[in-house]
Amino acid sequence: MKKTIALLTGGTTGEWVVSVKSAATIAHHLDADKFDVYKIMLTQQGWFYEPADSVKIEVDRNDFSIMVKGRRVMFDGVYIAIHGSPGEDGKLQGYFDMLGIPYTTCDALTSAISMNKGYTKAIVQNIDQLNVAKSVQLFNHTPYSLDTIKSTLKLPLFIKPNNGGSSIGMSKVTHPFDLKDAIDKAFKEDSQVLIEEFISGREFSVGVVKLDGKITVLPITEVETGKEFFDFEAKYTPGMAKETTPANLSTVTRDRVAEIVKHVYLVLNCRGVVRIDFILSGAEEDFYFIEVNTIPGQTATSFIPQQVAAMGMKLNDFYTKLVRETIG
């Protein structure tokens, strides 16, 4: 019997444009023989289902249902494809938990913690063979000292919104005079800012997912860009970055990375598919954790579709297994 799935897209942050593209990929590859999919758009103005043949239909948030041609549609589960708030920070997960509707992502607590880069680092930093960059966390309601930051951390520095994504509001600072402007830029996106020391090395991203009851590490992607760092433009503009999947790494390194990221997945109590970004410094020696993305992009230029293909699996089968693992 077909499952009725709500594909939730949009959001209330600057990442909504990425969410719409991700949802388009997911909708195209969700097996129509197995799932009846209704794409729900969430915006500041409301939650709507927009059928091709009629005007948009508002979602009844009392039970997350819609009325379509006189018939009330209830959902067996929700595929959350919203990057940023409220899809990635635990708010929607808490809502669906209260309604008893299963969903494809990490639970509310894991989502909320993982959205906060500083808190996530505090949890994972004791994992064997995992390193984190030295950092300072700022809050917009608490005074901070530029001199203290400069004396505590070594340039260059990365300044980023602590709860942001897609590298929006992020800056690389190589000169101390630029620090204040970079902090102000990040505070425009979030009430918390994370300042990290720059780690020199090769940058990678890898998907980790539980399928058929087993934690699976997808093929690793290496990211190289001519820009200062892998920013929004580099991430979502074809040709701006060189992405190699699978990455050119030794078998020993691949196996070691797989064990570390599996441990991260377990320690953070992840569900569904997540993406872990990291740096290998030296000759593939030290693993530096950057962040975990609990709702990774699924656009045409995103890592997860690349890695699924490199694993030899069709996206159709991947999404089917993901839905069955998380929703049933």
TrEMBL record:
PROSITE patterns in alphabetical order: ATP_GRASP (PS50975), DALA_DALA_LIGASE_1 (PS00843), DALA_DALA_LIGASE_2 (PS00844)
Catalytic activity field: 2 D-alanine + ATP = D-alanyl-D-alanine + ADP + phosphate + H(+)
Pfam family, one: Dala_Dala_lig_C
Organism: Pedobacter quisquiliarum
Record's cofactor remark: Binds 2 magnesium or manganese ions per subunit.
Residues that hold Mg(2+) 2 according to the record: 291, 293
Entry EC no(s): 6.3.2.4
Gene Ontology molecular functions: ATP binding; D-alanine-D-alanine ligase activity; metal ion binding
Keyword check for Cell wall biogenesis/degradation: yes
The name this protein goes by in its record: D-alanine--D-alanine ligase
Cofactors named for this entry: Mg(2+); Mn(2+)
Major subcellular site: cytoplasm
InterPro entries: ATP-grasp, ATP_grasp_subdomain_1, D-Ala_lig_Van_CS, D_ala_D_ala, Dala_Dala_lig_C, Dala_Dala_lig_N, PreATP-grasp_dom_sf
Pathway in which this enzyme or protein is active: Cell wall biogenesis; peptidoglycan biosynthesis
Residues at the catalytic site: 15, 166, 302
Gene behind this protein: ddl
Any single Gene Ontology cellular-component annotation: cytoplasm
Subcellular localization: Cytoplasm
Keyword Nucleotide-binding in record: yes
Keyword annotations from UniProtKB, A to Z: ATP-binding, Cell shape, Cell wall biogenesis/degradation, Cytoplasm, Ligase, Magnesium, Manganese, Metal-binding, Nucleotide-binding, Peptidoglycan synthesis
Domain of life: Bacteria
Domain ATP-grasp: 124-324
Role: Cell wall formation.
Gene Ontology annotations of biological process type: cell wall organization; peptidoglycan biosynthetic process; regulation of cell shape
HAMAP family per record: Dala_Dala_lig
Family: Belongs to the D-alanine--D-alanine ligase family.
